[in-house]
């Protein structure tokens, strides 16, 4: 199995987008992704074996997914001939590939990803851009935060608030006052 194939590092568990193809009229132009930087997108473990089998035997510089003739997938052809009919067949008529980007962001947030991880995954220039688009996905339930803090406090053991010192003694941080108080 190749370690890396056109940016797909199956063994590593992520895809690195290092180049892209833009449809400009009737020709494809190869270049870097939109922000001119590499982008890493995680691959869930449940897909790694399937992707590894799919890329087995391909050259390292080969395209991972191709059109029927072996060339690059063209967005307009792929969407009208493959994607739209497949989406409609499962009751998702009108779904677009870009909708899947939003779904990936939603699933990452639901899985506990922080805003910086989602930013890197989507290739956004800043975390604020990610929050502008996906703020509603990041919960602001302060009651849930308070509940998790209560659970952590209740679960601690006696040594939770203790630390060792250089002379071998122990300072109970729960009884120690902050400097200046």
Automatic annotation (TrEMBL):
It comes from the Bacteria. It holds the Pfam family Phage_integrase. Residues 1-147 form the Tyr recombinase domain. The keyword Zinc-finger does not apply. GO terms for molecular function: DNA binding. Keywords: DNA recombination. GO terms for biological process: DNA integration; DNA recombination. PANTHER family: PHAGE INTEGRASE-RELATED, PROPHAGE INTEGRASE INTD-RELATED. This is Tyr recombinase domain-containing protein. It comes from Micromonospora arida.
